């Protein structure tokens, strides 16, 4: 099965005429993703890599029965493009841009929930179901098809993990870049149910980091609803307090909110396997598959 | 970006948040111009990005013109915790009946704004919460430009604020919230929010933290960003679009990597082995050789750093560009050790370039191996 | 409340919707003042709440001052479909390249506003939909004050509107939508929306229907409400907060009831038995004897009505108040028959009062029995 | 069981200090409804009929764990009061006022859906589960406890029906005043699932009328999801087109949208019993219970 993106995905690329958009559209096509339409306001009527371009998401949706959209737009335009996608009825919207204002994401996060739209990212590499399709800019060569699900706040830690898995002959079902921002479109808790009900996923790897309380909330959810084994890594244990570690979301409050200790404690109590490092993830996965 | 006090007051004024009258001065000469504009006594406050100014002598009072000129010039000449005082903020002295606390900030759990108010203020909010939790009202706010009247009424009823202050309180909340939203604030805090002897509410001191990612929408404050960033390496790195992160005052290792997650993982592993990272630099994605050369120079220029660990897992970032950057900078950096791990796009090409440089660069295959190498070196 | 053309133009102007220049005149004397303010030829249009003014001679052209005065005075003296022409609207004559259609209205299914645009206009929208369905763009709009740019772009792409009109089109849509929302419109229609020979978009004629329930927010149009309600019985009823509904020009029965549902049910049952209701009056809830007396007088004053059916199911409405109202009015109404059904609060008290009045009032127990009685009477 | 209001209802009355609010609070109390709090801005700290009054819904919710609110406020204030209730986390909000602006209800209808709040009315008598509790101003003496569900756009047609049922010894489970406005908070389709899953309801009576397309949408829903017998009455067959019949919602468009014919046809096709009159409803119910 897998979820979010696969052989049934009919993808719109917003910002397809930009340098990044065009480059990654080609990458996605080569990987086998069915890119049905592009959207760039003002470029309607043109074509990129054989993909028709429209001025509006709504027209692209109507003409191609698209069911997902990925946004290759700069952070300044992310709000507008995601807002348009959500309001035009796209059920799955994946965002990439790093550096999106928090107040923009605050509005989008709640709007997407209210409209029943699955919003992924931003500050994320996207989503990939290895061997089937990808939406985003991840280096797909290091991914391989298999039965381990991975969701991650960090791209590099995810790459490292997937790379170790591949070298050990362990493939992935669906890999989701939840993203490193303070307010993501979808949190671990939002993605977990998909892994739980995906018949192609046996084990879930959750790559978290300091800051916020997504891992704590995930622990509560896992305790109640998740029957599959979950392995978690919390990066940033040794990061200084009240200092941004690059990801807008990876910051421990002066009062200690968002510390790795709190996350690991809650996760452990929920029966989650805690990994100390990416290599440690591999060690634990091997005991489970 | 955390605004200095005087700048916070400027944005308060812009949004008509009632706050104290004050003037900013950056040279002793300008002090004369302030005389006569405020009633004495006045308060003179050093504008530096650090707490506990008072104890360090950064806050003084002046009863008259002479004292103003003298004390002002003195503070302007000071340095507090190693930070030069470039600006002072001179304000009226307010007669205070009561100190309260008011802020808007982000609630990470609900992903919404939150209003925090306490009729007890003047100290750190965490202290207030600890001492008088029942006197703190914390209300999650829906996404939007305005704050609802019933929300403010709830806060009033919950905290027992006196009837006579209701209107001014609601007014301040509405204006501060509008400022919080429009200025893309992560924090908009008034502490203390005072009741003056005349029975009015005023913002005496404030903290305003603006989302760095939204600074492009606020050019009027953006220009002050570099001014308040006191670490010259952070500034230098920013000039090349890198993020330089000071980690510990101790430590001898500098980490360079291409992503926040990888930086944290590297620090975690290194720390676990008993070594200490003093700083890290995030290249972001797709850095070119020329920029990497600059990154190396910035990290190497930190006198604490005698060992640099370059840990790259390249997706958009190409290993050959990294290697060329190292090649270009190798003669300009005097670091003791250079441990390099390259993985991903154009790995072989990159490794070849590094090998050609020769010297005592330690090439490792994998993050673990890199940390092992670092540890071994330390034990020598 | 459907605004007359001149009033619709006034609100267009208020919201800066580009529309034609025009002046409203209600006496022949005022006509002179218009001369010189518009370039000839001008168009003179009767302002009455009915369609097909043109065929009835309510629209005329004037090439010069003399024609203006003559034609204007003529139309002001006319009556169209029984409606006296109290006002005329005099406008510039626009040279038209193309007639289009634009409106915002309520979509009952989605409970949202809907934009309807067609580059073919000038006739009724249902006709346009029938003839050129592919040329009509219909877009449901989210709740909000503003219309999104991408929505308008979609409409443009869907209908193939020429590039050179895009900006003016978007501007008109945004302004008309703002007006639609702020004025609580059920319909804001521009038909035709013309492209002038000079290549500009203008609202030539418009229909604006404002939600009666929201008129309290719009005192500037509310005052015109009675003026355009031509049926004097509707006006009289409104004065007492009743709703008088003309049903059929034929028919001899007037129905009085205390609720919209009951009125519809009464009419349905009466109609099913082959009888015809000419008007109905909804008392609403809790009417007192004095107001009921007035309600009876209003219905009875309709010369078509020879039979009144009072059908009350009292909740808030008390049957004894109804009965007293009948008692008070019985000598003032000359209706042939009066059939009364009382149910609910204080039923017995009410029945007793009616019985005491005596005369030929027919008291029935139940709605069905009432309609039976009406039918029997008709067959006599 | 029954739903919306019953013995577990902890009701807030918004506008409790007004004439109508106080009168009907007493009526509701006498009927056995548990009125836990009242809300009138500016009257916080007072008491009405032994019920404590607060300035805000939020405080009333917190102090009394209320789970429903009924609004006795004039139409001008309905938007503000309902908005406050929805934003304060009241899960069930019942509105009464006649004459609410359509644009106000447009906003509230969608806000309630987005926030997962059940909004009932306005222009409605409220909700009653006979013998258990009521929230609204309905003349409760004509209702009786039983196993027939009734939902209605019209108060008077509902009264007439319930009166006939009572005289015939047939009681009701829950009676919902959907209300006569153009945009109701909840439509027939929103209420039907509650009847379908209520073990105490055997038959559903739907009293509709001309205007809009709620009955058509209900027909679609019934066809797919409702297994219990449904009886429908459509009032207003002989009403003139394009003329308001008093209820803001009861108007047939000039193009014929909202006609009784269309509604009856669709309902019939969905297996719904069509009643010609309130008396006819009784005749059909008798064949079903």
How many helices of chain A? The count is 9
Distance between the termini of chain B: 43 Å
Share of β-strand residues of chain B: 25-35%
Average pLDDT score of chain B? 92
Strand order of the largest sheet of chain A: 3-4-2-1-5-6-7
Write the layout of secondary structure elements.
The complex is a heterotetramer, with two copies of chain A (289 residues) and two copies of chain B (380 residues).
Chain A: E1 11-14, H1 19-31, E2 35-39, E3 47-48, E4 51-54, H2 57-64, E5 68-71, H3 75-87, E6 92-95, H4 102-115, E7 118-120, E8 126-129, E9 133-136, E10 145-152, H5 155-167, E11 172-177, H6 188-197, E12 203-209, H7 214-225, E13 230-235, H8 260-269, E14 273-275, H9 278-288
Parallel strand pairs in A: 1-2, 1-5, 2-4, 5-6, 6-7, 10-11, 10-12, 12-13, 13-14
Antiparallel strand pairs in A: 3-4, 8-9, 8-11
Helix pairs in contact in A: 3-4, 5-9, 6-7, 7-8
Chain B: H1 5-14, E1 22-25, H2 28-34, E2 42-46, E3 59-62, H3 65-76, E4 79-80, E5 83-84, E6 88-92, E7 96-107, E8 112-118, H4 125-131, E9 137-141, H5 149-159, H6 166-182, E10 185-196, E11 201-203, E12 206-210, H7 219-222, H8 225-228, H9 232-239, E13 243-246, E14 253-257, H10 260-272, E15 277-282, H11 289-300, E16 307-314, H12 319-329, E17 337-344, H13 347-357, E18 362-364, H14 367-379
Parallel strand pairs in B: 14-15, 14-16, 16-17, 17-18
Antiparallel strand pairs in B: 1-6, 2-3, 2-6, 4-5, 7-8, 7-10, 8-9, 10-11, 10-12, 13-15
Helix pairs in contact in B: 5-6, 11-12, 12-13
């Amino acid at each position: 099965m897998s979820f979010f993106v696969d052989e049934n995905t009919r993808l719109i690329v917003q910002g397809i005429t930009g340098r990044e958009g065009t480059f990654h559209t080609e990458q996605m096509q080569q990987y086998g993703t069915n890119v049905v339409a592009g959207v760039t306001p003002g470029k309607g009527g043109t074509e990129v890599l054989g993909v028709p371009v429209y001025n509006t998401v709504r027209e692209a949706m109507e003409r191609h029965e698209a069911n997902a959209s990925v946004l290759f737009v700069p952070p300044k335009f992310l709000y507008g493009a995601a807002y348009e996608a959500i309001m035009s009825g796209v059920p799955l919207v994946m965002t990439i841009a790093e550096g999106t204002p928090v107040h923009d994401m605050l509005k989008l996060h709640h709007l997407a929930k209210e409209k029943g739209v699955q919003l992924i990212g931003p500050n994320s590499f996207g989503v990939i179901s290895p061997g089937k399709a990808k939406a985003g800019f991840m280096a797909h060569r290091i991914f391989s098809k298999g039965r381990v699900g991975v969701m991650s706040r960090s791209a590099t830690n995810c790459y490292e993990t997937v790379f170790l898995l591949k070298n050990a002959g362990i493939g992935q079902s669906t890999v989701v870049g939840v993203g490193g921002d303070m307010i993501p479109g979808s949190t671990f808790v939002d993605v977990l149910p998909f892994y739980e009900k995906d018949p192609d996923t046996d084990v879930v790897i959750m790559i978290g980091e300091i800051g916020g309380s997504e891992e704590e909330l995930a622990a509560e959810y896992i305790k109640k609803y998740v029957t599959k084994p979950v392995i978690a890594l919390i990066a940033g244990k040794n990061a200084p307090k009240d200092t941004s570690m690059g990801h807008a979301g990876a910051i421990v409050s002066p009062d200690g909110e968002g510390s790795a200790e709190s996350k690991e404690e809650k996760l452990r109590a929920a029966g989650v396997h805690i990994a100390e490092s990416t290599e440690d993830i591999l060690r634990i996965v091997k005991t489970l598959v | 970006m955390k605004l200095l006090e005087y700048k916070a007051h400027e944005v308060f004024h812009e949004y008509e948040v009632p706050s104290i009258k004050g003037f900013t001065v950056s040279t002793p000469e300008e002090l004369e111009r302030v005389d006569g504009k405020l009633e004495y006594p006045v308060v003179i406050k050093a504008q530096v990005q650090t707490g506990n100014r008072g104890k360090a002598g950064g806050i003084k009072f002046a009863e008259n013109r002479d004292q103003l000129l003298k004390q002002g010039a003195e503070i302007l000449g000071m340095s507090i915790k190693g930070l030069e005082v470039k600006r002072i903020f001179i304000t009226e002295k307010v007669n205070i009946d009561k100190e309260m606390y008011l802020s808007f900030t982000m609630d990470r759990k609900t992903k919404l704004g939150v209003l925090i108010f306490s009729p007890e203020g003047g100290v750190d909010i965490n202290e207030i919460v600890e001492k008088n939790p029942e006197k703190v009202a914390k209300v999650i706010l829906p996404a939007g430009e305005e704050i609802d009247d019933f929300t403010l009424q709830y806060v009033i009823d919950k905290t027992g604020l006196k009837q006579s202050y209701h209107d001014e309180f609601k007014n301040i909340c509405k204006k501060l919230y509008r400022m919080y939203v429009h200025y893309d604030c992560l924090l908009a805090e008034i502490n203390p929010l005072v009741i003056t002897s005349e029975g009015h509410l005023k913002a005496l001191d404030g903290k305003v933290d603006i989302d760095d990612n939204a600074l492009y929408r606020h050019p009027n404050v953006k220009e002050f960003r570099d001014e308040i960033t006191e670490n010259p390496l952070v500034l230098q790195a920013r000039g090349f679009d890198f993020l330089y992160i000071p980690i510990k005052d101790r430590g001898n290792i500098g980490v360079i990597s291409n992503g926040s997650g990888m930086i944290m993982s590297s620090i975690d592993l290194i720390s676990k082995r008993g070594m200490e990272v003093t700083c890290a630099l995030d290249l972001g994605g797709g850095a070119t050789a020329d920029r990497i050369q600059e990154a190396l120079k910035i990290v190497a220029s930190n006198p604490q750093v005698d060992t640099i660990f370059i840990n790259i897992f390249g997706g958009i970032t190409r290993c050959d560009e990294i290697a060329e950057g190292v090649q270009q900078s190798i003669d300009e950096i005097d670091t003791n050790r250079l441990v390099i791990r390259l993985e991903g796009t154009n790995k072989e090409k990159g490794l070849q370039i590094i090998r050609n440089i020769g010297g005592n660069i330690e090439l490792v295959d994998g993050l673990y191996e890199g940390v092992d190498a670092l540890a071994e070196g330390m034990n020598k």
